[in-house]
Amino acid sequence: MAFTICEKRQSVIDEQGHALVIGGPGSGKTTLALLKSKGILDSLAKGQSIIFLSFSRAAVQQILKRCREILNKEEMKRIDVRTYHSFCWDILHCHGRLLGGRPLKMMAPSEEGIRRTQFDGDWTTESKRLKDEDGIICFDLFAAATAELFEGSSHLRIWMGRLFPLVILDEFQDSDDDQWRFVQQLSAVTQTLFLADTEQRIFEGSFRPGVRADRLDILKSAIVLREVDLRDDNYRSADSDILAFADCVLSGKGPLPNTKDVKRLSYDYKNQFSATVHFAVAVTLHTLRKCGIDDPTVAVLARSNDLVAEISDILEVPHSYNGKDLKPIPHDIVWDQELSASAGVAIASALEFVSLDTPVAREAMHAKIEEYFLIKKDFCQRYGGRGAQTAGTKAARFGKAKAKVAEGKDLTQGSPKTFETALSAIPALTGDPVRDWKTVRAAFRAHDDLKAIFQDARMVRLFRASDTLATALAGRWMERATYEGAARMIRSVLDQEKLIGLERDPKGVSLMTLHKSKGKEFDGVVMIEGMYSSPFLLEREAPDFAPSRRLLRVGITRARSFVLLVRPRTASPLID
Ligand SMILES: Nc1ncnc2c1ncn2[C@@H]1O[C@H](COP(=O)(O)OP(=O)(O)OP(=O)(O)O)[C@@H](O)[C@H]1O
């Protein structure tokens, strides 16, 4: 593939010192960083590599995709694309002993979520205590502890500089204070390249503490660097008005371009919502196919997890829109990993219980369901979603059931009892893990209190027998004709995937929140606004709605070719 290398880009490639590249969505920041890397890779000494840090597994995936377009196989081996967390954990795992005299152990995020909701007091202080006194470290403290190590040991810093002659920091506008601390230490011993787009700053405030609007000013006042601005470039949707439309939404100033690339669809009443959403996705697929894209990728984006789940339910059944019949649309959901994993573990523990029917398996199942609801409660509290209280009540219900079963008492009434009754109606398991998984999962779906587990577990892929999970379960059945240990196996496979950073390339239709779409790219994007929930513009941000506008721009600019916005007719206008 041929890339345009203008003077500005060449100056970044040639720069021997630090550099900051600012640019909008699709301006080519990642590509430029990789072109610079390509020029250096040959000259690296044995053992040296270039490190490219980003925030999420999705972003890592996107960068790896670009790597495959730009670097050859040998070059790919010398560039290490990682999340901040995985980079920090490597360092803490090897050198954590320097901090408190003993090796550090990681607390899995699932366990952290559970302990946080159950802890009476300030969790930040408690997690620091856990690290200092017990040598157990939570995800949120990885960056701070790494910074502490670098600040405390010049030897370690210097070695890092030798190992990594170039460190690339993606989406630097989103870095928090602790990440900045360790990056600043690194910049004293190696060359750093910062990529940023201030208008893609969507994690500021309650989402991630320590993320600041003036991060780039802080950077520029601390490090001497070459600054290059690519804001006028757009290679993702160069021939379309998508970026121009998104920029209008960002500024709140019209007129919005009247273009075939971004369309709007309204609905009047709540009871028109389902059919309108279904039609919007169908018409987007159709439009993209008509443009010659045979297998289009489409992201369906909404502001909250609740609305994403509702849209998934809508796409699963037929509808009729203006007399037109719409067939169900197969889709994937990009979900919160921790919720998905604990929902998957809850289903696996029910599978274990059905196959073993022992008091231990029964108690473990109620415990895993309780755990899921504790994590859900924690998730709702952290990300401002609805349902924290309900999740807490359900957790308490299953927690009580767990205690009763442990004491050998019978369950008399309530959800845990009705769920057990539903499970006991399942005919014998077959030994085909995919079928058995779906049977047990269906019992969750049919139960009023446990539907959420069914929904969250949809991300756990167990559909093809070749999947790691299915293979592990099939092996267990062959050994013992039960699914004993299924919950443990699933937890370990999912935790591993989480750390390694696996995430599939999107195919077909994918549903996710706007926040989750960051860093991704699709042929088409459908953005959905609810009638009474998940508005595009949050009232509390009035009058300028700046954070909402940034979020909307991120969503719109994920599209290469076509965007469709679905809104209630009464929604506030996007521009003045
Ligand atoms: N210099 C260039 N010449 C031609 N095409 C380019 C160039 N730079 C980038 N592209 C193409 O533009 C698209 C977007 O590039 P890239 O992912 O590097 O942008 P980005 O600024 O990192 O985007 P985002 O901030 O949205 O993640 C890719 O398809 C890439 O191949």
TrEMBL record:
One of its GO terms (biological process) is recombinational repair. GO terms for molecular function: 3'-5' DNA helicase activity; ATP binding; ATP hydrolysis activity; DNA binding. Residues 2-238 form the UvrD-like helicase ATP-binding domain. Keywords: ATP-binding, Helicase, Hydrolase, Nucleotide-binding. The keyword ATP-binding applies. Pfam families: UvrD-helicase, UvrD_C_2. The keyword Repeat does not apply. ATP binds at G23, G24, P25, G26, S27, G28, K29, T30. InterPro entries: DNA_helicase_UvrD/REP, P-loop_NTPase, UvrD-like_ATP-bd, UvrD-like_helicase_C. This is DNA 3'-5' helicase II. It comes from Pararhodobacter oceanensis.
